[in-house]
């Protein structure tokens, strides 16, 4: 019997996790990733609740615990840098926190032996037929698959190709920001410093590498349009938002331009009436991003991948039945996380800026 051929777009968290479970169930899996190699950005991710069951089932929980950042907490300061309070480690780090590069490296290692990874390419078109789906690529040859899964993030190309642009699908929570690393001139050791107000925030932390300081500069924005703009325009927006600020701001802005790991993103949620269309289904942020302010992004991606794989297994490969079961089971969990994401953006940060992807949870 010929194995079911599936294509997964995205090699961050949801994609490799789904690849692991589908390959275990006998599927022939290809993962395509537009980046030229495994992504080394994202800084730190954390895990909560049922995500530990998924990690244990994949056999990687013990290894991930070896990379625990062991954060001690976060110092709250005013605009002059004077201490005004402290937050416990759990406020950002969850039950377990690891550098994202370690998670992606491990997920790739445990799947690369029997999953085909194609880097530096992207899906350019999808054409569904009764018996399968044709995928065209920007660089590679056109191929035939039985199913296609979008695990390619908030600005998912698979979602755009299969669903178009449904009104209200991408909901901006009013925050955008830059993340990067620089020399740890503050001497932080497994700890952080947070300065936040109604419309901007600075989050500095040091995790496993004592010589490096992770920086997040977040500010209020009207839309996520800057996400797709060139780096120099993103930097310009950050400089405008923090113009005239004292404390460490001038030094941080200078370091931003020199950083080779600069990253910019907006805090958004994805809301869709359905997470599947024919032979295409979405998993993780591509289908139901809860925003970094939820603290559940990574856990939700892992749980979503396992839920989808289990639904396919229970339905005997009948994707129509499986996709419906997947949504029915996962939607209440996603709705709760999205509510948390919205509430935290308002309550914890006063409706203003939350740390932008220093922790891409």
UniProtKB/TrEMBL annotation:
Organism domain of life: Bacteria
One Pfam family matching this protein: FAD_binding_3
GO MF assignments: FAD binding
Domain FAD-binding residue range list: 4-334
InterPro entries associated with the record: FAD-bd, FAD/NAD-bd_sf, FAD_aromatic-hydroxylase
PANTHER family per UniProt: MONOOXYGENASE, OXIDOREDUCTASE-RELATED
Protein name: FAD-dependent oxidoreductase
């Amino acid at each position: 019997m010929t194995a079911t051929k599936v294509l997964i777009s995205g090699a961050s968290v949801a994609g490799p996790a789904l690849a692991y479970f589908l390959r275990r169930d006998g599927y022939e899996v290809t993962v395509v990733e537009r980046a030229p190699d495994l992504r080394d950005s994202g800084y730190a991710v954390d895990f909560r609740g049922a995500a530990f069951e998924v990690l244990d089932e994949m056999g990687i929980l013990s290894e991930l615990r070896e990379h625990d950042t062991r954060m001690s907490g976060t110092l709250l300061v005013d605009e002059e840098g004077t201490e005004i309070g402290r937050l416990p480690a759990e406020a950002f780090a969850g039950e377990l926190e690891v550098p994202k590069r370690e998670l992606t490296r491990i997920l790739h290692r445990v799947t690369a032996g029997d999953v085909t990874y194609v880097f530096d390419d992207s899906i350019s078109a999808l054409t569904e037929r009764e018996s399968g789906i044709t995928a065209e690529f920007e660089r590679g040859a056109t191929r035939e698959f039985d199913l296609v899964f979008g695990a390619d993030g908030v600005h998912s190309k698979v979602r755009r190709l299969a669903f178009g642009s449904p009104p209200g699908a991408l909901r901006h929570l009013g925050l955008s920001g830059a993340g990067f690393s620089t020399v740890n001139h503050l001497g932080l050791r497994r700890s952080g410093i947070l300065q936040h107000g109604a419309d901007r925030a600075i989050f500095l932390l040091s995790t496993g590498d004592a010589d490096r300081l992770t920086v997040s500069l977040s500010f209020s924005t009207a839309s996520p349009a800057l996400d797709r703009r060139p780096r120099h325009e993103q930097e310009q927006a950050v400089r405008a938002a923090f113009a005239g600020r004292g404390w460490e701001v001038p030094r941080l802005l200078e370091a931003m331009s020199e950083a080779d790991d600069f990253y910019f993103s907006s805090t958004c949620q994805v809301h869709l009436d359905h997470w599947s269309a024919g032979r295409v289904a979405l998993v993780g942020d591509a289908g139901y991003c809860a925003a970094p302010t939820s603290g559940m992004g990574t856990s939700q991606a892992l749980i979503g991948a396992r839920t989808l794989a289990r639904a396919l297994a229970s339905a005997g490969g009948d994707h129509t039945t499986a996709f419906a079961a997947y949504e029915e089971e996962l939607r209440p969990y996603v709705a709760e996380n999205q509510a948390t994401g919205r509430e935290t953006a308002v309550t914890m940060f006063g409706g203003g800026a939350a740390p932008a992807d220093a922790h891409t949870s």
